[in-house]
Write a structure and sequence with these properties.
The chain has nine helices and nine strands. The protein is of the alpha/beta class and about 220 residues long. It has a seven-stranded mixed beta sheet with strand order 5-6-4-3-7-8-9, sandwiched between helices. Strands 1-2 form a two-stranded antiparallel ribbon.
Length: about 220
């Protein structure tokens, strides 16, 4: 989940040569390093990470070579230093504020996902057009009337939206977000959005990922 967000949010700050696949693997390495750090394990070898992810050891070393890290794959990396290098490269320290559009089951689940803050994403509020949901609080985040989004976006400088509305409303809401000067849309809907060239969309293809996973089962 998180790697897609990096591609969407931090692409202006990152080295343009870092591919989406490498960014995805770096986030997976970070998950492993975070776990090692919590277990007070000081060193990790590239082949350990490779084994956990079922990839080639040389690929891990190649990915890590783009980081400002002095460790050597065959000797071992200092867990805290390598973790910090990934955080610096991917821009975790630069907090980005975002809105969740749609306070349904998925929107509420994302609002409750506290781990976002560890990767620089701060959910400011949720938006919906259902009177029964407006005014409620989800994980200390208020559900607001969707009509208030343009004004709040302008006042707070938020230009990222996480879209979780039903498919039939996806394009309508995308048009609304564009008019509200939202420049980044993390799209969780099963719809391909049409947006201007200056608006970036990352499609979180849940069903596509599932089918890739189960294709050979």
């Amino acid at each position: 989940m998180t790697s897609a967000l990096f591609i969407l949010v931090y692409n202006e700050d990152m080295d343009k040569k870092i591919s989406e696949k490498v960014i995805n693997r770096l986030t997976l390495y970070h998950y492993i390093l975070d776990d090692y750090e919590k277990k007070d394990i000081e060193f990790i070898a590239s082949n350990q990470m490779a084994s956990l992810l079922n990839i080639d050891d040389s690929q891990v070393r190649k990915d890590i070579s783009i980081l400002n890290n002095s460790g050597k794959g065959r000797v071992g990396y200092i867990v805290k230093e390598l973790k910090k290098s990934i955080e610096t490269t991917l821009g975790f320290a630069k907090t980005k504020n975002a809105f969740i559009i749609g306070a349904g089951n998925l929107g509420m689940a994302l609002a409750k996902y506290d781990n976002f803050t560890n990767y620089g994403l701060n959910i400011v509020a949720l938006f919906d057009n259902d009177d029964k949901k407006i005014g409620k609080t989800i994980n200390n985040k208020l559900v607001l009337d969707i009509e208030k989004l343009p004004n709040l976006s302008k006042k707070s400088g938020v230009d990222i939206a996480i879209l979780t509305v039903p498919r039939e409303y996806a394009q309508i809401m995308a048009d609304f977000l564009v008019q509200a000067n939202i420049k980044y849309i993390w799209n969780f809907t099963p719809a391909v959005l049409s947006v201007p060239k200056d608006v970036q969309v990352w499609n979180e293809n849940l069903m596509g990922n599932f089918l890739q996973f189960t294709y050979n089962i």
